[in-house]
């Protein structure tokens, strides 16, 4: 199918995975606070009859949060998703989805037992037909209504605590734009008051896991929409780039010759309409973005504020960022120093790792450089370059994970900004995902990057290297424990020998050299470490 033929298909309806399940967007579900839809495969909630899952109470993290958000009970996203639902499907084994009807990332097959590993590739290494297919898939998603999900157009309070549901349909591409907006929007405090220092997807530890889930879900939906289970999001390697190499009509759209802020009419993306870009208007009205069209994509790459972002990131800056050993540090927000996350996100200098919010490095630099729709956080996903950019950012995250092999405990369990502790559920995803679940190698999640692929290791190495690496990290503790254990053993041995000598001196009886079987079975050996 040609690019334009697919692009101008009539709008159709397609199942999806994303935000509020349509089956739960009603007064009854909101009143009962239960979202456990039926799986069509067996007609039972959560596929319980097929042992896929069951309807369970949500287990919320009780770990303390950081001081950045000094309120409680004023934002629907607090303790997500408990304001809307406190019972959802808990899936078993490799099953996943709001009704346990899908497979976890990296698995496929009717029983979700088949492992898969898809490869994300450099967009410039795609063949012409592969590149055209990717562009066509994007355009198809923009023109396909979602069947399984809807978006909220009002807060829970505005819905009269659920008795007046406020939801609407949305196309597949814009569903993800809206989710990015919803996670990063300001808190509406009533009247004309708002709170800006809040973001469930940025400026804190969850930045990288959140966008990893976002891309995996987006990838999954394109696979379902097109039937192309091998589809992966390509990446744009922008290291040392002198300009926006993907900003051509062959790829993501050239400049409009009569208006440099718009896209060339020869690009399919020139007809796209953006949503969720008028944040100040929503704030003044104490309203949510309702996905109304707000004009064309804006982009004027390179004509940005050079004092903030003088150029695109360099290879040397990426390598320095990868050398940082701490995933997170200090306040765990945009003021964190020597934090890999904060440096990669772009709030810390990519040459010193010292926080400097007057400059934009690495991830942020690309957004600012695009000088348009991508430069405003809440609406940045409107520009399809967003997925290429974040695919490459995710690959840098993956390089760091492979280089440092951190244990899960490295991801902060407490005192991070709201929504960013290890066990917090990510806003606004349903099914539910915790931040810590995606702090692991992409290969465990079913995908890899073409430029990161490694030669296959022998079975011995492949099995033992992760354990040896973990042992290396805790080696000082093991040595210390061994020393302490040796001292305790020596003391106990001395006491035992002393007691034996004393007993020999007081009794003429000869002690047996061997313990009888019945006595041996009564002895308990314990090792406290």
UniProtKB/TrEMBL annotation:
It is found in: Melanosome membrane. Pfam families: Tyrosinase (PF00264). GO terms for cellular component: melanosome membrane. The keyword Signal applies. Residues 1-18 form the signal peptide. Its cofactor is Cu(2+). Residues 202-219, 383-394 form the Tyrosinase copper-binding domain. One of its GO terms (molecular function) is identical protein binding. The chain crosses the membrane at residues 474-497. Keywords: Copper, Glycoprotein, Melanin biosynthesis, Membrane, Metal-binding, Monooxygenase, Oxidoreductase, Signal, Transmembrane, Transmembrane helix. The keyword Ligase does not apply. Belongs to the tyrosinase family. This is Tyrosinase. It comes from Rhinopomastus cyanomelas. The lineage of its organism: Eukaryota, Metazoa, Chordata, Craniata, Vertebrata.
């Amino acid at each position: 199918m040609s690019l334009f033929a697919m692009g101008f298909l009539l709008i159709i309806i397609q199942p999806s995975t994303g935000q509020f399940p349509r089956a739960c967007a009603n007064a009854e579900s909101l009143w009962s606070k239960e979202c456990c839809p039926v799986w069509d495969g067996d007609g039972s909630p959560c596929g319980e009859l097929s042992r896929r899952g069951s309807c369970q109470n949500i287990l919320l993290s009780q770990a303390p949060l950081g001081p950045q958000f000094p309120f409680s009970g004023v934002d629907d996203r607090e303790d997500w998703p408990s304001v809307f639902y406190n019972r959802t499907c808990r899936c078993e084994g490799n099953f996943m989805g709001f009704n346990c009807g899908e497979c976890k990332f990296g698995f496929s097959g009717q029983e979700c037992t088949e492992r898969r590993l898809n490869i994300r590739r450099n967009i410039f290494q795609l063949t012409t037909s592969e590149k055209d297919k990717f562009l066509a898939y994007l355009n198809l998603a923009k023109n396909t209504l979602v069947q399984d999900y809807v978006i909220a157009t009002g807060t829970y309070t505005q819905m009269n605590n659920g008795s007046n549901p406020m939801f609407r349909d949305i196309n597949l591409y814009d569903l993800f734009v809206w989710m990015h907006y919803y996670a990063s929007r300001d808190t509406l405090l009533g009247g004309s008051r708002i709170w800006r220092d809040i973001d469930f997807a940025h400026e804190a530890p969850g930045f990288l896991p959140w966008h990893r889930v976002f891309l995996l879900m987006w990838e999954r939906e394109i696979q379902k929409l097109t039937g192309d289970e091998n589809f992966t999001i390509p990446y744009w390697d922008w290291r040392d780039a002198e300009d926006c190499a993907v900003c051509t009509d062959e790829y993501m759209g050239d400049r409009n010759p009569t208006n440099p802020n718009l896209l060339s009419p020869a690009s399919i993306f020139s007809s796209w309409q953006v949503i969720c870009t008028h944040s100040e208007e929503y704030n003044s009205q104490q309203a949510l973005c309702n996905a109304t069209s707000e004009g064309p994509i804006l982009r004027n790459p390179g004509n940005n504020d050079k004092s903030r972002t003088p150029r695109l990131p360099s290879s040397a800056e990426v390598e320095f960022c990868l050398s940082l050993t701490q995933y997170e540090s200090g306040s765990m927000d945009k003021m964190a120093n020597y934090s890999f996350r904060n440096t990669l996100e772009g709030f810390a200098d990519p040459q010193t790792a010292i926080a400097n919010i007057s400059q934009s490095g690495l991830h942020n630099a690309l957004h600012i450089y695009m000088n348009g729709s991508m430069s405003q956080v809440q609406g940045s996903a409107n520009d399809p370059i967003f997925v290429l950019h974040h695919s490459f950012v995710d690959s840098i995250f993956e390089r760091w994970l492979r280089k440092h092999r951190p244990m899960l405990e490295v991801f902060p369990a407490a005192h991070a900004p709201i929504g960013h502790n290890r066990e917090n559920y990510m806003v606004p995803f349903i099914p539910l995902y915790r931040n810590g679940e995606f702090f692991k190698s992409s290969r465990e999640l079913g995908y890899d990057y073409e430029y990161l692929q490694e030669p296959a290791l022998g079975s011995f190495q492949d099995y033992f290297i992760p354990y040896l690496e973990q042992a290396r990290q805790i080696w000082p503790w093991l040595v210390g424990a061994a020393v302490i254990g040796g001292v305790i053993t020596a003391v106990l041995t001395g006491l035992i020998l002393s007691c034996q000598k004393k007993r020999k001196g007081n009794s003429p009886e000869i002690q047996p050299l061997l313990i009888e079987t019945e006595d041996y079975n009564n002895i308990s050996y314990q090792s406290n470490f």
